[in-house]
Amino acid sequence: MDTDWMSFVLANRCFDRSAPDHNIDKLYDVVIGFIADDKIRNMIRLYRSGMMKQDDVLKAMQEAPWRVMQYSFHTPRSTRFLTLKEVWHEQ
């Protein structure tokens, strides 16, 4: 999690097509990175409202114990070689 990651998340959460690194138009087939879940979304909201500084948001995110990586497939091309191996249901 760094300023590039945060910029990418902000551009996509705000649907900002003017940002050079957005993926709203599926410029990237696959995006790999930390999940921007509700906790991160709340911190970014505080940053956008001026209540948190960018460095403080990044530090809090980097130290968070709940960081999880995700692989996000955005195009049919990106899923062409995937194979379903198993379905698991939590009960």
What keyword list fits this structure?
91 residues, alpha+beta, two-stranded antiparallel ribbon, 4 helices, 11% strand, globular
Approximately how much helix is present in the residues? Answer: 25-40%
Biggest β-sheet strands, sense, barrel: 2 strands, antiparallel
- SSE order in H/E notation? HEHHEH
Strand order in the sheet with the most strands: 1-2
Q: Span from first to last CA? A: 33 Å
Shape field = globular
* SS strand fraction: 5-15%
Oligomer: single chain
Average pLDDT confidence is 81
Counting DSSP E segments of at least 2 residues, the number of strands comes to 2
The structure class reads alpha+beta
The radius of gyration over CA amounts to 15 Å
Number of spatially distinct domains: 1
**Which spans have pLDDT < 50 for at least 5 consecutive residues?**
none
Count every helix, treating DSSP H or I runs of 4 or more residues as helices: 4
Protein architecture, described:
This protein is an alpha+beta fold and 91 residues long. The chain has one domain. The chain is 40% helix and 11% strand. It has four helices and two strands, in the order H-E-H-H-E-H. Strands 1-2 form a two-stranded antiparallel ribbon. It is globular and about 45 Å long. The chain starts with a helix and ends in a 12-residue tail after the last helix. The mean pLDDT is 81.
